[in-house]
Write a structure and sequence with these properties.
The complex is a heterodimer. Chain A is mainly alpha-helical. Chain A has two domains: 128 residues, no CATH class; 132 residues, no CATH class. Chain A contains ten helices and no strands. Chain A starts with 8 loop residues before the first helix and ends with a helix. Chain B is globular, with a radius of gyration of 21 Å. The longest helix of chain B is centred in the C-terminal third of the chain and has 16 residues. Chain B has a six-stranded mixed beta sheet with strand order 1-13-12-11-14-10. The N and C termini of chain B lie far apart (47 Å). The chains are: A mainly alpha, B alpha/beta. Chains A and B meet through helix 1 and helix 10 of A and helix 8, helix 9, helix 11 and helix 12 of B.
Chain lengths: 261, 435
């Protein structure tokens, strides 16, 4: 094998896109025409800005925005106004990744930013609750991404455990199936995204615990909503670099002790 | 096979390692789970044959980084095997010897008066009538320096040739058969046991610490005593990397230098002390996807690869598939020649042209975490290397690594950056700071 076999960012985008197709198809099956329009608007916003930034920076065209558009289109309610999708995806893509230099250079997922801005700017927009069908449709994609090493088992496990623990501490009864259904999509595609999540193994546990704790805190009624997952992903993503930094400091301390002898 | 030991101290041995057993399993066994796993594709049969006659050989500047030569021969001179070709300007004790007998064909300088290559063309020379003097083990260090064996050692940290007066905390002999495509040390050592043991004895004179013999699981390659320990390493490719072995046995730091040396060089050292003659033999394996007949050859250091690969058409890398480089002559530390089909874009070239485009993002994948066998968080390390932050890299532990260790990371990273080169830049910077 030579290095020509090394993965490329476009390949990773392709894998994530493949993983997202089924969840979107399940959601869209209720109203194909409307969801196709939403997806189209999200595509136009995400890819349009990406093409503009790519041209201005004299880089080749990239299509990383496809995953952003798919995630947003999957979580949006069907009755949303298309201009709202255009505005929120534009802001999310620009503020979440393009100002940092594109996918992989930033620290939060542009879809998380888009959805968070959508909910802050338009409080009347209510995201639908994740259905069991959506959770089941997430499963194959999740397995694919896990096999390819693109989501970390540590993050998944830590988040799941932290959600359960925090819910119990708040005095809610846990229905494992309901919790898994509510978490699945957001956990796989927003919280565990490799660029967003912490990048050290110790950090991944802490990051997952933080995300899980926040999800439970943002769900005061005990019912986990998409909003809770999105805002938790946003907050945890903001803290991920700090978590990594602390993990690196701890590692450096251990390393120094070991090599001082 | 009965192993004759020279300085066995049984009481100390049993105190350290438990009671000695006959026919014994090795005492310490490290199984390395992280790192690339080798495949047995295109592996050569482990039988030795003599190489076709080498028509030219070279001493390469890439194997003596930073060395500025003061030549003792001129172009056109006749030289014998083991004759000193040049010495280092900074440390005149350090000499480099000719790997074959012949005529000096070219002496080329690289940038800043470093060595580019010194090429010798084989020619029959009159063998010296006087038999060489047998050196005394008491002058081990001086002999190794004067006879041109010194460049066989590499330090951790930094991965450079040690200073002539330096004293390591330990010496690690690497005789691990980690990839099936490489020669099996057991085969190479089969008729060189005495030389190997004498070589180990010589190594003990260079350090006050332990001489570790790292090998694959099986009968010990040497007899243990107070200061020689056989240790088994198995598992991934990384089990055959000296950095991994040093990390597990005796972590190095700038204040605590550890040296590593290959088992074939230990044989050469033993031979030198047994006969007074430096014989720079090297057993290499020819393998790779384009190799028509994978095989083991006994040849000499720095042999011209084209002379060894007679009947092969592939493009030759000196080294393995991961860290090998295209070369005309065999590298000092390589025991493999990998033949690739022509026209296929390969390691260094591919990465160079990809990197010149513009930097691509680094996506933290599990493969990156699993590529390093040493406990260093991969993604922060790669980020530090990518921006040349030597302070952060050294805090993370990059001083335990050399180029060959991060070659696997480069294969799994989306950024396409040439991490071996970036690591070397950072290590050079840290070495200047430490000096």
């Amino acid at each position: 094998m030579t290095w020509t076999g090394a993965p490329r960012p476009a390949g990773i985008t392709l894998a994530q896109t493949v993983a997202l197709v089924l969840p979107f198809a399940i959601v869209a099956s209720s109203d194909v025409g409307r969801h196709a329009l939403i997806l189209l608007s999200a595509f136009i916003a995400a890819l349009g800005w990406e093409a503009l930034f790519g041209t201005l920076r004299k880089r080749g065209l990239s299509v990383h925005g496809v995953t952003t558009a798919l995630i947003v289109a999957t979580l949006c309610p069907p009755d949303i106004a298309l201009w709202q999708v255009l505005v929120s995806v534009s802001l999310g893509v620009i503020l979440g990744e393009l100002v940092f230099g594109g996918r992989g250079f930033g620290f939060i997922h542009p879809a998380t930013v888009s959805l968070a801005l959508l909910m802050i700017s338009f409080p009347q927009v209510q995201l639908p609750l994740p259905t069991q069908a959506l959770a089941l449709a997430t499963l194959p994609g999740g397995v694919l991404l896990f096999t390819l090493g693109l989501i970390s088992g540590r993050v998944l496990l830590a988040t799941g455990l932290a959600v359960a623990a925090a819910l119990v501490l708040q005095g809610h009864a846990i229905e494992p199936l309901a919790v898994a259904t509510a978490l699945a999509f957001g956990l796989v595609f927003l919280v565990a995204d490799p660029v967003t999540a912490a990048a050290t193994n110790v950090g991944r546990w802490a990051y997952g615990a933080l995300a899980g704790g926040l999800i439970a805190i943002f769900s005061p009624t005990g019912e986990i909503t998409s909003q809770a997952v999105i805002f938790a992903a946003l907050m945890a993503g903001v803290f991920a670099p700090l978590i990594d930094h602390l993990a690196v400091l701890a590692h450096a301390y251990r390393w120094q002790r070991r090599h001082r002898a | 096979m009965p192993l004759k030991s020279y300085e066995t101290d049984l009481s100390a041995r049993s105190w350290l390692l438990g009671a000695p057993q006959e026919g014994l399993a090795l005492v310490r066994h490290f199984r390395i789970r992280k790192g690339e796993w080798p495949s047995s594709r295109d592996a050569p049969p482990q039988t030795l044959s003599n190489a076709p006659l080498v028509r030219s050989a070279a001493v390469l500047g890439t194997d003596l980084p930073g060395l500025r030569p003061r030549f003792e021969v001129e172009e056109g001179d006749l030289v014998a095997v083991g004759q000193v070709l040049f010495r280092d300007r900074k440390y005149p004790e350090v000499a480099a010897a000719s790997p074959i007998a012949g005529r000096v064909a070219s002496l080329d300088f690289g940038p800043r008066r470093t060595l580019s290559a010194c090429i010798i063309e084989a020619e029959d020379t009159d063998p010296g009538a006087t038999p060489p003097n047998k050196p005394d083990l008491g002058t081990a260090r001086q002999t190794l320096l004067a006879k041109g064996v010194w460049p066989a050692f590499r330090t951790r940290p930094f991965g450079r040739m040690p200073a002539p007066s330096a004293s390591p905390a330990a010496i690690v002999v690497n005789a691990v058969h980690a990839v099936p495509q490489a020669p099996n040390p057991v085969v190479v050592l089969a008729d060189r046991q005495d030389a190997f043991r004498l070589g180990l004895q010589c190594l003990r004179r260079l350090t006050e610490g332990t001489v570790f013999v790292c090998q694959s699981p099986g009968p010990p390659l040497a007899a243990d005593d107070t200061r020689t320990t056989c240790v088994a390493f198995s598992g991934s490719r990384a089990s055959g990397l000296a950095s991994t072995q040093i990390d597990r046995l005796c972590p190095a730091s700038p204040q605590r230098e550890v040296w590593t040396v290959g088992y074939q060089d230990v044989i050469a050292i033993g031979h030198l002390f047994a006969t007074g003659e430096y014989r720079p033999d090297r057993v290499v394996a020819i393998s790779g996807p384009a190799a028509k007949r994978p095989r083991l050859l006994r040849t000499c250091l720095g042999a011209r690869i084209a002379d060894l690969c007679v009947g092969e058409t592939g493009e030759a890398l000196s080294g393995d598939r991961i860290s090998g480089r295209r070369a005309a002559f065999l590298g000092r530390f390589d025991d493999q020649i990998t033949l690739l089909s022509r026209g296929r874009r390969t390691s260094r070239f591919a990465s160079a042209d990809r990197f010149s485009h513009h930097p691509r993002p680094l996506v933290p994948t599990r493969q990156l975490e699993r590529a390093l066998a040493i406990d260093i968080p991969a993604v922060p390390l790669l980020r530090a290397l990518a921006v040349g932050d030597s302070e952060a890299a050294s805090q993370l532990g990059c001083l335990s690594l050399v180029e060959e260790d991060v070659a696997a990371l480069a294969r799994h990273c989306t950024s396409g950056a040439d991490y071996p080169r970036l690591l070397r830049r950072v290590l050079d910077e840290l070495m200047e700071d430490a000096a």
